DNA sequence: ACCATACGTGCTCATGTACGCACGCGACGA
DNA sequence: TCGTCGCGTGCGTACATGAGCACGTATGGT
């Protein structure tokens, strides 16, 4: 009933992680900190999509979506593949999926009622 | 072997969540998108801390830490309590802990070797 | 009452970034 | 070869944000 290496059990939180890890995590979070990118990633978690389809679904100009996809690609969150004259993107890594679902669940808790269960 | 309501199983990712949820999630991610706030939250996940101690441990000016704590408090990620002339902050909600650990794990994967296991 | 401590706030400066438009480039089809 | 379609890029603009200084405020000790 103690030290499940999980949520509580303050052991791990005592000392700060190395700066490189912190900055890398911050960078990942910054990629998730934009509604448009969030929607793009959400759709990409469901399967492959080309830029035009994404731009249409997230209701944004294609250049904007392209820029977002470029950033996401640089960060390694998505991967690109050519199909004819289109470029098809897909989500990359299970971490993104878990972070998205966790955030959406938190948002739901934050909106429906109780701010959070402490 | 299908529909575990988990990572894959594209069902849930087909349609975008409501805008309110997306923006709320983006806001939460924006709070986590800064190295200083990330460090502060990390320490607060391990227990209560006052502003001065936090400023000392994260190596930042006290006013800066205070501003960050204000934002985190507005977002509901941390809570404050008065103890004498100090103000003691604590983390609030298990979502933050899970997001932090998930992000740190992802950062570790991203740094040590394989960018990610697709 | 006076001083010291611990926070919070207003402010400015510098930086980062999202958006959309116009353009250039590569890939198909006639 | 020429026209069309789909993407990416270089701008400029408008906006949000982080850092630190100086100051105001509240609490507790002498």
TrEMBL record, chains A, B:
Keywords tagged on the record: DNA-binding, Transcription, Transcription regulation
SMART domains: HTH_ARSR (SM00418)
InterPro entries: ArsR-like_HTH, HTH_ArsR_DNA-bd_dom, Metal_resp_trans_reg, WH-like_DNA-bd_sf, WH_DNA-bd_sf
PROSITE patterns per record: HTH_ARSR_2
HTH arsR-type domain location: 17-111
NCBIfam families with a match to the protein in the record: HTH_metalloreg (NF033788)
Name of this chain's protein: Helix-turn-helix transcriptional regulator
Lineage of source species: Bacteria, Bacillati, Actinomycetota, Actinomycetes, Pseudonocardiales
């Amino acid at each position: 009933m103690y030290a499940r290496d999980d949520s509580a059990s303050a052991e791990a939180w005592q000392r700060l992680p190395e700066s490189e890890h912190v900055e890398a995590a911050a960078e990942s979070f910054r990629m998730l900190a934009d509604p448009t990118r969030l929607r793009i990633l959400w759709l990409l978690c469901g399967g492959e999509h080309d830029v035009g389809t994404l731009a249409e679904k997230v209701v944004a100009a294609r250049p904007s979506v392209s820029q977002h996809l470029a950033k996401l690609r640089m960060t390694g969150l998505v991967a690109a593949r050519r199909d004819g004259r289109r470029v098809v993107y897909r989500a990359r890594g299970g971490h993104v999926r878990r972070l998205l679902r966790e955030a959406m669940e938190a948002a739901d808790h934050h909106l429906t009622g109780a701010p959070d269960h402490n």
